[in-house]
């Protein structure tokens, strides 16, 4: 009994690959690669240069190539597929579960989609086309048809015998799905419960009939929320009349969670997340980065020009009391910071389902109140700071009161805008920190100038 | 064969609970609750008022109470435990897996920790105390000891017989962990592979010896990254000499991912995430919200006062050309927005392991270049906009050049600061959008004024 207990790591593999390429020792690398995890191979391929990448990819068996392709970045996928003939790509697509093949065709090589569907096996192509009917980022796009179907009248012993037969065809055996003759889902039973049950017990005695399912057009974010809420290892996808279409395994749900997380933080940072959120940092070409960023920057720039309009409107007042302008960045900065905090709280509360439509007024009241309280605390500090700088009591009062007003205002619209987006069925995560900062800048300036005019009698 | 195929939802349950409370129909509610998912019961309890919450909680059997407690918000947990005697709480803790009991004692009722450990069963208390030695948010805190241990020399048939015996004691049977007589992990085999194998085959022929494990002090974020990378359903936790301590099931990993996600977006929004990130929006008391927010706001406020210092330094220049002040919010706003985008890209790249220490210079070069390119595009627009506003060519040139300089600068320090945090082993997510905006504000103003002085000859 010779047991090798190797710890599998990305670093080990990367080292081996570079060594083998340097010494042109490809035969032994081929053997080694066959034992490695596809995710690690993909991570190494992502970092190699083009000729090395092609060399290493060619060492893999087609089944492993298919698995590695699913984990590769978009850039590397396109690059690897470029050197294969459509027929070769078709073979790889046939090896993939239908959700992965659909994702590849829709997201990574959309231009060759029609051509590649032609060279796939007809049943496989038909299955993939069914998935492609569902909207992107929906449950229908993530599901696999390779789940274990069982009949309610089988005994535990019969079920185990049956599973031995179908084993090669299913992706996961952790849960078995009980279908009636019409193909409707009537229960779920875990492999564990079948294994430990007395051999003569029937599936319909063992199965759980309290089901949580999703429709094929359910958004992937909702799927992730349900799987995390119920601690499931897979989520069944059914039609409205309960016909079972497929399952979404938990590892795909985790991938969706991570992708959503990236998209959310990108959007919150004021960027278009779509398309680049699944791509490793270095693999996104610079022109694409700029395209994804400059659009938002430009829009925000245009919105920000209103600050100039507001200030020009109060040109006389600013000329009379130049000291007013010293406080401009401090005041609008504080407003922007407060608003950014509120937006991030709201985005999470909405994403996790903690805040619902009926809660809108409660949220606004709560944020208005907390804005007022925080504004009062900071306003006192601002008043003191302005005095210390040698500003007049009146000017200091203007600054202090403006902080109170701006914090309350920023907190309220920082809550209002994500709620409005949610109400209009727009993802609240599009309300970015830069967007709220920009909105608060122009309106905050107007508040400042109006308070100044009133108190200083300008 | 009567199959009820009910779709289990939170809304159904909430409706039933309110109905039963209104009609004081508690007996039938008790029966209904026994069939419901603990996560749904917890979600309803979170929204009930205190007396109703106590009434409904009392209807649950102790084993279900223990499961519900694990899903409740901190506020509701404390509230529910308040009305129980320490002995009663001790009984509930004994029902919990050790990781959940440890989390409850450490995070939800830290003050009663010593007292409650006393009333737990001695073995259970000892197990929990072992977990509490590991740092918060580490693998050691998340693991359960209730995994299936098997010996390498068992046959598949013997293994299945053995699993029927130990079934009640283990939390998950999806994977079986193969230990040698010294208790060291030597392989993992899935229940699926055991079920479909020929009955006489031995575990050591079936098991996978390419292992990925974590140490008990591994951070939960790293655990999540590994589970998502390798598509695992559980992660084994071992000591440096490979003694198996426990496993972290995938559902706990998902909870950790969601909590980290919340923490990241809170931090990025400029808030202290710790402590409130697992709590539903409405359950966080207002004074705590303010405490968590006002500290950062105050710090940023102090940093932002440097903008005043910069402007006062250039008081004469501003008095001579009042129009200079019109562009202040626009220029520093654009800098802040650019910086926020870069920070969000960097935080994700670092969190997902796409950017490593050796990549620092590549990142800085890349961000400097993209900042320069985006700045040039926006600078052209700014120059045109200033001219249209009737500013002099010279002033417009100042504005345009400042945009180029500020974008380049903001992009570079937006990359530098998360990298610096990473290097110092601080979570890069503490670099919030407000922090970067504030930093860019004061430095951006100085850049603006210096360019103005040089070109306008002030």
Can you walk me through this structure?
2 copies of one chain form a homodimer. Chain A is elongated. Mean pLDDT of chain A is 88; it is low at 1-6. The first copy, chain A, has helices at residues 10-23, 26-34, 38-47, 50-58, 62-71, 74-82, 86-95, 98-108, 113-119, 122-132, 139-142, 156-166, 191-196, 203-206, 220-230, 250-268, 286-313, 315-320, 323-326, 328-351, 360-388, 393-423, 433-456, and strands at residues 6-7, 148-150, 175-179, 185-190, 210-211, 234-238, 244-249. Chain A is mainly alpha-helical and 458 residues long. Chain A has 23 helices and 7 strands. In chain A, strands 2-3-4 form a 3-stranded mixed sheet. In chain A, strands 6-7 form a two-stranded antiparallel ribbon. Chain A folds into 3 domains: 10-139, MgtE N-terminal fold, CATH 1.25.60.10; 148-249, CBS-domain, CATH 3.10.580; 285-456, Orthogonal Bundle (Tetracycline Repressor, domain 2), CATH 1.10.357. The longest helix of chain A has 31 residues, at 393-423. Chain A is 66% helix and 6% strand. At the A-B interface, β1, α3, α12, β4 and α13 of A face β1, α3, α12, β4 and α13 of B.
């Amino acid at each position: 009994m010779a047991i090798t207990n190797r710890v599998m790591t990305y670093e080990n593999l990367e080292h081996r690959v570079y060594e083998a390429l340097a010494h042109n020792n490809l035969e032994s690398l081929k053997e080694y690669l066959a034992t490695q995890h596809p995710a690690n191979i993909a991570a190494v391929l992502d970092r190699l240069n083009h000729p090395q990448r092609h060399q290493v990819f060619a060492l893999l068996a087609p089944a492993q190539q298919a698995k590695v392709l699913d984990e590769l970045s978009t850039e590397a996928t396109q690059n690897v597929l470029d050197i294969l003939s459509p027929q070769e790509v078709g073979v790889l697509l046939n090896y993939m579960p239908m959700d992965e093949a659909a994702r590849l065709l829709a997201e990574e090589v959309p231009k060759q989609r029609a051509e590649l569907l032609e060279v796939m096996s007809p049943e496989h192509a038909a299955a993939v086309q069914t998935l492609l009917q569902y909207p992107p980022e929906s449950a229908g796009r993530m599901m696999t048809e390779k789940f274990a179907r069982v009949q309610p009248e089988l005994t535990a012993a019969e079920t185990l015998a049956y599973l031995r037969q179908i084993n090669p065809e299913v992706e996961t055996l952790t849960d078995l799905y009980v279908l009636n003759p019409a193909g409707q889902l009537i229960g779920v039973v875990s492999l564990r419960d079948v294994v430990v049950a007395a051999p003569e017990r029937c599936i319909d005695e063992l199965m759980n009939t309290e089901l949580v399912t999703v429709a094929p057009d359910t958004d992937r974010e909702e799927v992730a929320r349900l799987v995390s809420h119920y601690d499931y290892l897979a989520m069944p996808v059914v039609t409205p009349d309960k016909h079972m279409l497929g399952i979404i395994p938990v590892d795909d749900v985790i991938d969706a969670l991570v992708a959503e997380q990236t998209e959310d933080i990108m959007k919150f940072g004021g960027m278009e997340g779509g398309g680049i959120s699944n791509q490793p940092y270095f693999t996104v070409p610079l022109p694409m980065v700029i395209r994804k960023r400059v659009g938002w920057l430009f829009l925000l720039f245009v919105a920000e020009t209103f600050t100039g309009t507001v200030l020009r409107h109060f040109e006389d007042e600013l000329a009379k009391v130049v000291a007013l302008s010293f406080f401009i960045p401090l005041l609008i900065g504080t407003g922007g910071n407060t608003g950014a905090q509120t937006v991030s709280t709201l985005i999470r509360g909405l994403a996790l389902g903690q805040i619902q439509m009926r809660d809108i007024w409660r949220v606004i009241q709560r944020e208005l109140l907390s804005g007022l309280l925080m504004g009062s605390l900071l306003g006192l500090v601002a008043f003191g700071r302005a005095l210390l700088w040698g500003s007049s009591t009146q000017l200091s009062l203007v600054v202090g009161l403006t902080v109170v007003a701006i914090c309350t205002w920023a907190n309220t619209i920082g809550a209002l805008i994500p709620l409005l987006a949610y109400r209009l069925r727009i993802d609240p995560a599009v309300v970015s920190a830069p967007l709220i900062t920009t909105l608060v800048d122009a309106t905050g300036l107007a508040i400042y100038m109006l308070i100044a005019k009133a108190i200083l009698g300008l």
